[in-house]
Amino acid sequence: GPGQAEMYAGLQELGVANGEDLKETLTNCTEPLKAIEQFQTENGVLLPSLQYALPFLDLHGTPRLEFHQSVFDELREKLLERVSAIALEGKVEERYKKLEDLLEKSFSLVKMPSIQPVVMCVMKHLPKVPEKKLKLVMADKDLYKACAVEVKRQIWQDNQALFGDEVSPLLKQYILEKENILFSNDISFLQNFFSPSPKTRRQGEVVQKLTQMIGKNVKLYDMVLQFLRTLFLRTRNVHYCTLRAELLMSLHDLEISEICTVDPCHKFTWCLDACIREKFVDNKRARELQGFLDGVKKGQEQVLGDLSMILCDPFAINTLALSTIRHLQDLVGQDTLPRESPDLLLLLRMLSLGQGAWDMIDSQVFKEPKMEAELITRFLPLLMSFVVDDHTFTVDQKLPSEEKGPIPYPSTIPEAFTKFLQENRIACEIGLYYILHITKQRNKNAFLRLLPALVETFSDLAFSDIFLHLLTGNLTLLSDEFALEEFCTSLFDGFFLTACSRKENVHRHVLRLLLHLHHKVAPAKLESLQKALEPTKQSGEAVKELHNQLSEKLELRKPSPAEVTETPSMELPLPTVPTPASR
């Protein structure tokens, strides 16, 4: 076939006979058997001792092809070893000269499957494969596929579009993996999106593949960063910021100084990475991070765009927000105001730099966002007053009550709090983390008090996947409260259902939560929720699938009519009595 002819075409250039030559010989000869014998002698393995060995193998029924193949395989292994050795010995110029000569001789045979590995091995060891050869490889899909990554890097660095085609499916996969974790059916407050350590995350398939594709090539690294910036701008998806940091730290793990030393974010990211590992910014590291931010020189402000993207990584924001909540609690104990705490101010500075990443990269105006004084003088003291309310209430519960009766938990929210959550991005982020914090403490009173403020938040942050993922996880700690009508009405009717119809992701998160906790919810409430959460025509597959799973679970729960009538009265479930609010 034409494939065969093309495959062996290179042999003639090298003066080696091939099938075509044999065909020609046989067509033009009078004694075919003699001609075959002569062809074998001329083109066989030239070793005198073989003259007598080959007939012996014939007697044993070993085909000549098999023999030649095994000799060939043996020689090829030796050649591959030799090529790898040449690549390491002698003076640099000399060894590359040898390899280039070898490539010149062998490249015409690159289509022969048996010889191809040798040609590929030669190219792999050449730091600069001649442009002409690279073009030939690029033009041929199969050759390109068979190339070592070392050769592909040389092709990619001058072909951004081709490199983009290779990287693009990996980036899609990465985003999908993140979303699968956020929407996972396993809900727990112990294991969540932020549980894996940075080191573990960097072992992920996509980060490893990208690291491998980049090697030590600064040009390719820059291209990937450019892709990530562009995609972040186009989609506002913060997971691209995570990948930006993970990629740099993956190269850091491998000690690839060629890249780490030229990325101006390296030391900052390395320090922040240690904070993320501890889920806390301690004082020593806070000083270090501040040093980097204060050290941005005139004329180099562009680095702020990169730093802001590193700080916009949800793992960074999570660490900064958790640290902020911890600082606020400490300040309550020390009777200190937020504006008197330099550490707290630095956390806010980094939060606003991270939250401002999109605007900064979009506008290309590289300066730190201005911090609003109100955030420090009004909003944070408000949060501290909530902490104080909790302390006071707890202490009050423990005091012997005279005739005054139990003191009720404060139920109103200061209007300023709601306004801050609607209008100020940083306030909203910290407010949401405070709500996660009280939920984790199983503080039902505080949770129900602040929940109404979540219906309208800055750019709908309370309905973002990361927050809802964390909230549903923490709500499993309050699972016993789901039996109470009042609690369910506040949580579902008052919060979740207000957004379900306009936000598919909220619909998914509520269904996830119910799949996990349906056995805790009162039957009547559960039935009305099942109806309210029915998929609409616009609903995606995920919502339909979750609703089906929920309906199946509820079918299994329904007792059959026979069982209902025979239930002895004493086994009827007792009405649940709300426990005193001291919990």
UniProtKB/TrEMBL annotation:
GO annotations of cellular component type: NELF complex
One Pfam entry name: COBRA1
Annotated region (Disordered), positions in chain: 554-583
Domain of life, per lineage: Eukaryota
GO biological process: negative regulation of transcription elongation by RNA polymerase II
Identification of the protein by name: NELFB factor
The species this protein was found in: Cnemophilus loriae
Encoding gene (name): Nelfb
